[in-house]
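S.,

Sequence below, as promised.
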Amino acid sequence: VDRSELIRRLLDFALRQRKIEDALEAYREGTVTLWKAAEMAGTSLREMMELARVKQIPVPYTLDDLRRDMEYVRRKACGE
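The prediction came back faster than expected:
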């Protein structure tokens, strides 16, 4: 890898990290949802959940949320 390629890769990495940090901070402050934070960071929702866990940012997920998600999956599986 030549010098210019290395610099480009480092800049790409730094910009990606900055987008992730900004998205996590917005989520921590409650100004965006976790889904929106993932979109802002250019990651999947699952990856954003893992990043929030690593940064010890609580992801509120209640029993009602679980019930609602399970009902949604059930309806989709039954073709409703």
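The chain has a mean pLDDT of 91.

Coffee later?
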